[in-house]
Each structure stands twice: as structure tokens, then as C-alpha cells.
Input
Amino acid sequence: MPEEYTLEKCQMLAEKVSKVSDLPSECTRYPEALKAAAAPRTTTKTAYDGMTGAQAAMANKAKGRESHAQIQRRLTNTRRFTKQA
Output
């Protein structure tokens, strides 16, 4: 028994495929599904989307992460292990 592709099922598939040719041939009779598959997807989000630089720095500080300057100081201090106390 062949699988039946309804408009709702084709639209759900269209949201997940990367190009129209990835859709099953039964979905080509629904122009709404074809349009949804052809639409560009640029909704990638970053971890600090919408935050200013200061807010992102404060979030990192609250999590205990070092800033870029702290990491550089830690890694470039050449006399770290040779200092006389």
C-alpha cells in the first residue's frame, strides 16, 4: 500500500528538506509545499543573540569563564614556572 502524501505532510517535509528536488514526487502537486521548500532559511541563532558585548561578558563571568585577555595572560606569561618566590 503506497503512502499517501497530504498537504500537511508535504509542508512538514518541505520545512526539513534543503531543496525542492528532495521532496517526494507526490508533493509536487501542492504549490504551497514547493514554495516552502524553496524558501531560504536564515534563522540561525548564536548563543548570545540579542545581547550587547557587556551582557555577553557578564554572562561568561557568571559562568566562571575567563575573558580573552585573561587567557592570553595565562598562556603568554613566560616566567610563570621559573619565578623565585
Notes: The two ends are 82 Å apart (CA to CA). Residues 7-38 form one domain. Helices lie at 7-16, 31-38, 53-62, 68-76.
